[in-house]
Amino acid sequence: LPSCRRLMLIALLAATACAELDADSAPLPEAELQLRALASRPTTMVQGIGDAENATFTSDGRLFVTGGENVYEITKLGDAYQAEKRYAGTCNFTGIVEHAGYLYTTCGEGADLANLTPYLLASPLTPRVEFEVIYEFTKVGIPNGIAFDERGRLFVTDFTPLLGKLVALSFAPSSPLSVTREEVWHRMNHPLANGLKIYRNKVYLTD
Hints:
The chain is mainly beta. The protein is built from two helices and 16 strands. The termini are close together.
């Protein structure tokens, strides 16, 4: 959970990707690709998302960002971008992931980092996303990174200092919003469990 209170969401304009994807153009020399990458400059899209934590593009091309008070959808209005809140209350949001037509996110409610109330929220990926609490964690103090495995289990890192662990949530087969089991999958000798990705049945995390 970063301490920064001021955040700018930026998009890196990478000319190299366009060059590599253009079938009518010959591949550029590696040295030129590196120079183009160095010449790229960030473009400010949105300002004012305090404690921005994670971002994800959905399968239908929409951008969502978690922050210290809410989870936001970045939308375009004319030539400008804006951050629209997608939760009716306030909470310190962290991880976010899409799975099987739903968006899931985690947050901790409360002003005291040592006594947060940790929640899992979800929303169908509809034209108007509205997150609602679907579960209160019992084995996680500060939920952070989240990712689904191939079996449909949701893994969550616990950012609690000196008590880092990886927790797995199981869902009812017929209800993607009903958590049926929460288990500690792995306890870590790391002070802070942070980002999380699952790729080809392997778990990758940062601390």
